[in-house]
Amino acid sequence: MHEFAAARGPIEAMIRSSDLEGLLRHAETIHGHVCPGVAWGIQAGHYAMTTLNRKNTGMEEVVAIVECNNCFTDGIQTVTGCTFGNNALIFKDLGKTAVTVARRDDGAAVRLVVKPNFRQRLFEKYPAAGPLFKKVVMDRQGNEEDHHRLDHLWHAMAKKELQAPITEQFDINHLTVNMPAYARIFASVCCSICGEEIIETRVCMRDGQPTCLACAKEHYFILTGNGITLTRD
Ligand SMILES: [Zn+2]
Ligand SMILES: [Zn+2]
User: Fold this and answer.
1) pLDDT digits (tens, 9 = 90+) for 167-203
2) Distance 5 CA to ligand 1 centre (A)
3) pTM value?
4) I need a labelling partner for 201 at 20 to 30 A (CA). Which of 66, 134, 152, 216 fits?
């Protein structure tokens, strides 16, 4: 293996040896904390990568189609290596904690979606979590100690969730998907107003001059914690 291509090696080794706790630890480096949602992403991503058995070097050999932008998605990005930046992460704004991971060469894919009422089942399994989650996350009312307690609880819950049988957590379907085309490479142009470089597909013309959507006060799509919407500056 080329020395520069080895950085994902430890993750691949953890996938092969089913070291889900190791993967969870790794996910924390991008997610910032450990929680049940990211643990489910680890589980689903691990199942998919084991099933598809395809190495991912970030060149779209494997594509992950997520249906939510929540903690789950960071678990998926960690394990599959399909990320926002390497064009192998496709986001369907459906608000479902679900992912389809597909292999480019033959379209073989697996879709995992959490069982219905998974949130309710989670809070039934861990009765202390519900009120604390509401106080700290939903109402943003927690003090430092509440945050600390939730952090401990989430770590414990996440580790336990990793051990639950995958079929208890997810509905799983094996399927074949039509793979999206490889991401195209476009030329860049400079905005005639701000002078910043823009990919040519995002240029609009103002008085015959190429202009960015922000300077032109045109609508563009924005992805926030609330999903994809249209906005303008
Ligand atoms: Zn989280
Ligand atoms: Zn501009």
Assistant:
1) 999 999 999 999 888 888 999 999 999 999 999 999 9
2) 29
3) 0.92
4) 66
> pLDDT, tens digit, for every residue of 34-82?
999 999 999 999 999 999 999 888 888 999 999 999 999 999 999 999 9
- Long-range contacts at 80-83 (CB < 8 A, ≥ 24 apart): 80/45, 80/48, 80/49, 80/56, 81/8, 81/11, 81/56, 81/57, 82/56, 83/58
Give bridge partners of residue 223 from the DSSP assignment.
228
Q: CB neighbours of 33 closer than 8 A, spacing ≥ 6?
A: 151, 154
Å from CA of 57 to ligand 1 middle:
25
**For residue 204, how far is its CA from the centre of ligand 1 (angstroms)?**
38
Q: What is the pLDDT of residues 134-148, one digit of tens each?
A: 999 899 999 999 999
